[in-house]
Amino acid sequence: MNEGKITVKLLSKLNLIPNGHCVVPNNINENGWAGWLPIINLITLPQISYCIAMNFNKQETIEYLKNKGEQQWFWNFEDPINENSVSNDSEQYQIFDARERSIKERLERNGLSYPKNMQDVINLFISLGFLTEYHDEDNVFRLDLLIRPFPNVSSVLKK
């Protein structure tokens, strides 16, 4: 499955992740991903790692993410004003809107979709190679998060 790679599942099996903690790739920013991932993906990555360490299956992970209350971070491109926006004229709103629109365009140029729900968040991470999906011994879908080696943007996506 992940021979020669360090993953959250491996670290968890080796008891290297304290109970209730998560591990995320420390070079996610250095490898250029902060500018390519929607804000919802950046926010949920530690939560996904936590779910994997706690041995949640894929569906339990998705439900956990839904229940964490991060839904406001999904950008609505048709009606982008939400309760967290002061106004669509605010500088913060304009920066956030430009960032998310740019990321959406770049993802689409690479044949990927901007996430609209938590299933899409998981699917984007799988498509990018951050997460692997597999069946366990009970034929239940599980996820695992790659920690090392973590890919560079340039090795996965075209500009």
Radius of gyration (Å): 16 Å
Number of domains: 1
Q: Could you estimate the helical fraction of the residues in percent?
A: 40-55%
Task: Write the H/E string, N to C.
Answer: EHHHHHEEH
Contiguous helical run count = 6
Which class of secondary structure composition applies to the elements?
mainly alpha
Model regions low in confidence, pLDDT < 50 over at least 5 residues: none
Q: How many β-strands, per DSSP? A: 3
Report the oligomer: single chain
Q: Could you give the distance between the termini?
A: 29 Å
Strand arrangement in the largest pleated sheet:
1-3-2
Q: Average pLDDT value?
A: 87
Could you describe the largest sheet, including whether it forms a barrel?
A: 3 strands, antiparallel
Strand content: 5-15%
Query: Which word captures the global form?
Result: globular
InterPro entries: DUF6042 (IPR046105)
Pfam families: DUF6042
Protein name: DUF6042 family protein
Organism: Paenibacillus ehimensis
